[in-house]
């Protein structure tokens, strides 16, 4: 029995060491990305794998551009749509989480999320698409890391360059060219609002550009954009 407990503790120690090393690996990447741009993300790699499973020569549409080369309209539209308190919170919008929980309970299913831009970035950069308690915990840990070492402008810059905007379309520059044949810098207010409205379900809206829900949400976002505070 004593030997069994010894093996058990040894196994737990090994698991803890591996978990710690994994967190350090993530933290090292985040520190590197303070100055250097990530070329891909876990979510981008996952989508590319799925696409190449259907079409081996499939490629992602993605081009990194600096924060200064992205339209202020798009920045304000995303803040208004995804995270109105982005510049003020420390990674988590507790009021938003509570409201989303109450709305989901009322509907009896998940119809709203309370994830901030920082949380969305944490998930996109490192995590799988599976929804598990472990993934939510890891998302929270990574969010804390991002907020601890990066300023809001850098978090937002990376977010703008890695989020999904369609089937194989990632980042503001690729989205602007895919939908409007222009650069991210030249997006109009209406175009920016429409792109922001697509973020919760980009592949669906890529296939259904005239969906009534998309048009309605575009109008709502456009009315809120002027009051959005960007980093």
Could you characterize what this model shows?
This protein has about 230 residues and is mainly α. It folds into 2 domains: about 1-30; about 40-225, Orthogonal Bundle (Penicillin binding protein transpeptidase fold). The protein is built from 11 helices and 3 strands. The chain has helices spanning about 1-30, 40-55, 70-80, 95-105, 115-125, 135-150, 150-160, 170-180, 190-200, 200-205, 210-225; strands at about 60, 165, 170. Strands 1-3-2 form a 3-stranded mixed beta sheet. The longest helix has about 30 residues, at about 1-30. The model has no long low-confidence stretch (mean pLDDT about 90).
Structural class by SSE content: mainly alpha
Sequence stretches where pLDDT stays below 50 over 5 or more residues: none
**N to C succession of SSEs:** HHEHHHHHEEHHHH
Largest sheet, order of strands side by side?
1-3-2
**β content, as a range?**
under 5%
Roughly how much helix do the residues carry, as a percent range?
55-70%
Q: Give the overall shape, derived from the CA principal axes.
A: globular
Number of domains: 2
Average of the residue pLDDT scores: 90
DSSP, total strands = 3
The assigned CATH architecture of the largest domain is Orthogonal Bundle
């Amino acid at each position: 029995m004593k030997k069994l407990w010894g093996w058990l503790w040894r196994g737990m120690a090994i698991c803890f060491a591996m978990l710690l090393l994994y967190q350090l690996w993530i933290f090292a990447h985040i520190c590197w990305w303070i100055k250097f741009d990530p070329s891909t993300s876990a979510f981008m790699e996952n989508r590319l794998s799925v696409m190449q499973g259907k079409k081996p020569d499939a490629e992602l549409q993605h081009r990194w551009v600096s924060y200064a080369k992205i339209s202020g309209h798009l920045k304000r539209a995303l803040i208004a749509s995804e995270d109105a308190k982005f510049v003020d919170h420390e990674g988590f919008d507790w009021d938003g989480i509570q409201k989303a929980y109450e709305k989901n309970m009322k509907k009896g299913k998940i119809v709203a999320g309370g994830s901030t831009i920082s949380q969305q970035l944490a998930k996109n950069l490192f995590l799988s698409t599976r929804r598990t308690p472990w993934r939510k915990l890891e998302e929270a840990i990574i969010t804390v890391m991002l907020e601890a070492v990066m300023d809001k402008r850098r978090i937002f810059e990376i977010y703008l360059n890695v989020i999904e905007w369609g089937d194989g379309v990632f980042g503001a520059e690729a989205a602007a060219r895919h939908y409007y044949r222009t650069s991210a810098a030249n997006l109009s207010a209406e175009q920016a609002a429409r792109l922001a409205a697509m973020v919760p379900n980009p592949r669906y809206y890529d296939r259904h550009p005239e969906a009534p829900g998309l048009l309605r949400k575009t109008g709502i976002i456009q009315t809120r954009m002027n009051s959005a505070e960007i980093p």
